[in-house]
Design goal:
Radius of gyration: 20 Å
Number of helices: 3
Oligomer: single chain
Shape: elongated
Order of helices and strands: HEHEEHEEEEE
Distance between the termini: 58 Å
Helix content: 10-25%
Number of strands: 8
Structural class: alpha+beta
Number of domains: 1
Largest sheet: 8 strands, antiparallel, barrel
Strand order of the largest sheet: 1-2-3-4-5-6-7-8
Strand content: 35-45%
Length: about 140
């Protein structure tokens, strides 16, 4: 009996340790607005807005499935040189791909999805799920 109890205890501890080490990957499916950003320095916000830099009136990211994303036209062209990509989410990076093109971005997920982009004026976009696109809120 003691041997069986010891085996059960070892299995239970192993399962607990394994499950604690697993990080749940965020499900990005849905539409996101830019809820905030971090600029690299002094930037003229009017010129950014004119070229589609910030469309706070609506979603700019639309993750339509577990592997494809559509970006608002002016926004996507300005910051990613495209509007449709396949994407992959790892534990540390959001990766957009389209053919041979590959854009890798670090991110932090602390309730707000903060993506670090490669741009001369903005280094971080804070993405928040669009409330209008959340099921049951329409």
């Amino acid at each position: 009996m003691k041997g069986k109890l010891k085996v059960i205890l070892i299995i239970a501890i192993s399962v607990a340790i394994y499950s604690c080490n697993q990080t749940e990957k965020r499900d990005l499916v849905g539409k996101y607005v830019v809820g905030g950003f971090h600029m690299r320095g002094k930037v003229n916000l009017d010129s950014l807005n004119r070229c589609g830099g910030f469309n706070f009136g609506g979603p700019v990211f639309d993750f339509r499935s577990n592997d494809s994303v559509y970006l608002a036209k002016a926004f996507g062209e300005k910051y990613f040189k495209g509007t449709t990509f396949m994407y992959e989410l790892t534990s540390e990076r959001l990766i957009f791909t389209k053919g041979a093109k590959r854009i890798e971005m670090d991110y932090v997920d602390d309730g707000v999805f903060r993506v670090f982009i490669d741009d001369s004026s903005i280094d971080r976009l804070d993405l928040v799920k669009d409330r209008k696109s959340v099921k049951g809120k329409q």
